[in-house]
Amino acid sequence: MEMLTSSFFWVTLAQIIMINIVLSGDNAVVIALASRSLPPKQQKQAILFGSFGAIILRIILTFFAVYLLGLPWLKIIGAILLFWIGIKMLIPEEEETNLDGHEHLWAAIKTIIVADFVMSLDNVLGVAAAAKGNVALLVIGLTISIPLIIYGSTLILKLMTRFPVIITLGGGVLGWVAGEMIITDPIISSWVDAQAHWLHTVAPAFGALFVVAMGKWITTFRETKAQATAPKTQATEAA
Fold first, then answer.
1. pLDDT at 210 over 90
2. What is the distance between the alpha carbons of residues 25 and 75, in angstroms, rounded to a whole number?
């Protein structure tokens, strides 16, 4: 109870919440992207369970953040995974699928948790620094941020339904984060800062363009292939 009457507690808690609000924008985007193809009821479940799972993982990650962020190649591997997730989310799902509703739901939840984990590698450092080693503050701050992330995801999801171009922008955001992650990996960050500081702008931009271009190309390729096989299928059925 003494902790609750401390000005340090409330000031630090406010800092943690603000950090989460600022840094959770891209996380809200990935949650909305992953759940957009689900029925309305399952969308809410995916957002809720995915957000809770992501926050729990983020709390765990925060305790090991300083050590993990010092590992070479980790961010590069994470960036490649994020590129794949971003491209995958830009490709419309095929109408015929062997997955039932529950499998779709859990697939979306897994995507949300994995993507949030990767994207939180940098974010957790700010939260950990603000908490100053106070575990209670860390947990309370991250817990309070759950409804903020859920609300943000729900809002973006509604906007995606009304303005489909936001889906493309969301994929670009994931590519931007992935490009930024690559150049901040310990194995190349020193060289980038010393010799190629311009990569801090070029790499994220290239990452965003790469994800959007690949997503569009694969979608076009699939549509062209489907159109080419459609007449053959109709001819066979007619025969």
1. yes
2. 20
